[in-house]
Design goal:
The protein is built from 2 helices and 8 strands, in the order βαββββαβββ. By secondary structure, the chain is of the alpha/beta class. The radius of gyration is 16 Å and the shape is globular.
């Protein structure tokens, strides 16, 4: 098969600084060198995959505005493998993120879903057998319950 792996994800942002802070401070990505393109942006590294964040005019819709959100995006979500469910959940609360959780015991999987500043849903998948000993995982849910996003406090 000629396809090898995902190279990068590109996300439009009406607030570049807020979006970079979310991906770096909340999710733990690292900002890396970016070519001197004629529009604002940032490149963020996660393992072997990059996230390219567009700002300014490059981030506007074809109509020339920033009217996009989770309900109108053709991309439903971006799923990432992760570790440290309990700590990540605390980080979401600390940074006042909108998030939700899910437990899929048949697949030994815990999930956290968080909205980035542009309304992109980021799904984090945690394999329960790879979580630190004593981890609690999702709380207050029946299995497979898909709750609403918790409002940012």
């Amino acid at each position: 098969m000629p396809l090898l792996d995902l190279h990068h994800v590109a996300i439009k942002s009406k607030n570049l600084e807020e979006t970079v802070a979310f991906y770096c401070d909340v999710l733990g990505m690292e900002q890396v060198e970016r070519p001197d393109f004629p529009f604002p942006g940032a490149w963020l590294q996660m393992g072997e995959t990059m996230f390219h964040i567009y700002g300014g005019d490059a981030a506007k819709t074809h109509s020339g505005n920033y009217r996009y959100n989770q309900r109108t995006s053709p991309v439903d979500h971006i799923a990432l493998r992760a570790t440290g469910f309990d700590e990540m959940k605390k980080t979401f609360v600390k940074h006042k993120c909108e998030w939700r959780q899910m437990n899929i015991p048949d697949f030994r999987l815990w999930q956290l879903f968080v909205l980035d500043p542009s309304g992109v849903v980021i799904e984090l998948n945690f394999e329960t057998d790879k979580e630190p000993k004593g981890s609690k995982g999702p709380s207050g849910q029946k299995k497979y319950e898909f709750g609403r996003f918790a409002a940012a406090a």
